């Protein structure tokens, strides 16, 4: 009954126009419907791209050059300031249609225990939220004496060793090398304990351009085979190990988790 009334009403409206006007009105209706479908498709596609974006995460110690590389690749101007109490935030920005580059705060043993645990909690929340989106980690280390570079790598690597299959090393300020060929060969051997694949060690000069740096990240990310990485299994394994090995300590009347040092073995 209602359908018949609507049909009759529509016919009455159309009858008020001549044939030419009826055709124009029909074309306008068809165009409006198609335009609506197109808008819905674009919205859906945009949302889908946003959901399934992959994360390229830079990690490392202060002074390694994470934020400098982030600013070059994204053409941004963020600054990280040394702060005793506050926890710095995680920055991310798209570098193409599929990848977001992520700059993270450093985990330092010189920080207070409260701040260190807050940063670790921040990492854990981010990784749980994006556990299926993480494509690659980049361990950023500044070019200097080899023993210092290995020590700085270890300070960060021990927190992320469960992801060792997708960790690349980026050596910054390589323009400081007096013999780049010799130093490259030496560092490829020295950093063998962190990655046996020499293609996963990248050398970056301070004059690198934005597009070149973005392509380095994108091309290295495309080489990842995530079939070798089981995030849930790695998380469970690390959680069980943490429960077995972590101890508790009392400090200023509060209870904290004591993060154990890893030896370079």
UniProtKB/TrEMBL annotation:
Gene3D superfamilies per the record? P-loop containing nucleotide triphosphate hydrolases
Q: In which domain of life is the source organism classified?
A: Eukaryota
Q: Where is the chain membrane-spanning?
A: 25-44
Q: Which keywords annotate this record? A: Membrane, Transmembrane, Transmembrane helix
Alphabetical list of InterPro entries matching this protein:
P-loop_NTPase (IPR027417)
Task: Spell out the protein name for this chain.
Answer: Signal recognition particle receptor subunit beta
Taxonomic source organism? Paramecium tetraurelia
């Amino acid at each position: 009954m209602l359908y018949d009334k609507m049909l009759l009403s529509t016919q009455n409206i159309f009858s008020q126009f001549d044939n030419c006007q009826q055709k124009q009105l029909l074309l306008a209706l068809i165009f409006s419907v198609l335009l609506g479908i197109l808008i819905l498709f674009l919205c859906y596609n945009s949302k889908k791209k946003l959901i399934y974006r992959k994360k390229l995460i830079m990690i490392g110690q202060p002074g390694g050059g994470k934020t400098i590389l982030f600013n070059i690749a994204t053409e941004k101007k963020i600054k990280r300031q040394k702060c005793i109490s506050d926890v710095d935030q995680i920055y991310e920005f798209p570098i193409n249609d599929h990848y977001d580059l992520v700059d993270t705060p450093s985990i330092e043993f010189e920080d207070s225990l409260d701040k260190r645990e807050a940063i670790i909690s921040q990492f854990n929340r981010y990784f749980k939220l994006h556990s299926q989106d993480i494509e690659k980690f980049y361990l950023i280390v500044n070019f200097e004496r080899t023993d210092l570079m290995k020590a700085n790598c270890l300070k960060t690597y021990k927190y992320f060793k469960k992801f060792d299959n997708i960790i690349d090393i980026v050596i910054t300020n390589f323009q400081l090398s007096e013999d780049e060929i010799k130093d490259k060969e030496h560092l490829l051997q020295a950093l063998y304990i962190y990655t046996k694949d020499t293609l996963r060690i990248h050398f970056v000069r301070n004059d690198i351009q934005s597009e070149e740096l973005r392509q380095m990240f994108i091309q290295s990310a495309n080489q990842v085979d995530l079939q070798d990485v089981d995030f849930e299994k790695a998380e469970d394994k690390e959680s069980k190990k943490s429960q077995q090995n972590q101890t508790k300590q009392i400090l200023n009347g509060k209870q904290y988790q004591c993060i154990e040092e890893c030896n370079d073995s």
